[in-house]
Amino acid sequence: MNSRQRFDLAIKHQVPDRVPIDIGATSLTGMKPLCQQRLQDLLGFRDVPTLANNGIDERILQWAGTDFRSVGAIVALPNKHLGPDANASMDCWGIQRDLIDEEYQITRYPLRGATIQDLRAYPWPESRVDEQLLVQWEQQAKILKQENKYVVIAEHPVYGILELGCWMCGYDVFLMRMVSDTDFVRTFFDKVFDIQMKVIEQYYSVLGDYFDLTTSGDDFGMQTGPLISPRTFQELIAPYFSRRIARTKELGQCYYWHHSCGSVYALIDQMIDCGVDILNPIQTSAAKMEPQKLKERFGDRIMFWGGVDVQQFLPLATPEQVRSRVQELAQTLGDRGGYVMAPAHEIQNDVPPENIIAWVEAAHGAGS
After folding, report:
1. What digits encode the pLDDT tens for the residues 1-16?
2. CATH number for the domain including 189?
3. Do the beta carbons of residue 222 and residue 171 sit within 8 Å?
4. Label partner for 313 (CA 20 to 30 A): which of 11, 113, 355, 360?
């Protein structure tokens, strides 16, 4: 059974020859550079690597049996914020990030304390996608489609409306305003949604003939529960989210994969209603995200993608514990199909390469 046949059965909630695997196929299931280097060394990969779309050594993808390959990326729109004195880390939304402890962290929230009038006057990014990038991505996607070896994923081209609200206004301010100032929130969402829709129109119109599913990302959860209540999600998020998904599916005739960290158990029904086909990353270390509970409640209506915990388990477990956990996930989330085994976010530098090897060996021996 090849990768495309394997995924086709799994997404239809039928049993493939083994659980499909994604180690390194997307920007949200890859690995940090030092982690990748250690794994390359342990596997004896010495030559200069050929890198896949998100910077992972193609030899690692093939060794792991990764059934997917991706094209595209978050689009850097024409930036109105890079004046002569602007910090180089300031993006097209006006969000400034500085390198702190090897990670780029937000150090300036451009709309913190803003009014509705400020939103209307703000220099929003121009919703124009670089045509040369689109041509490049189309060629890459066309090659993958012609090879017909892997399931082709289109990386999402735009951020989510909730995360942009939190990044531009500050988490505390924006989440409070979702309760106390819904006029401001809707005005903000209207502005961002207009840009989102113009970008996806350009992006998926070009790539739509070549991919099988698209990712998206917007974190709705935290460690102990959702960031917002189901009622707030239904009133403020769902109207925009569902329209974006519907138009994406019209353009791409594809499955829709959504990434939300944290505990989102209370929102899964609504995400399914909005059109989400695949949920990632299945952060099992968060509240109410136990695999058995998720499978029993939602397993016949959505595919789960992820589940291998990189927050607490993978860095600290022994290889034998990893093998046992992988087999358990394959049996639980993979029961009757509907599961892709992947890291529950990017694999960090504190994960021993021996644990990744144990994972791959167990995944290929676990069957479905």
Report:
1. 999 999 999 999 999 9
2. 3.20.20.210
3. no
4. 11
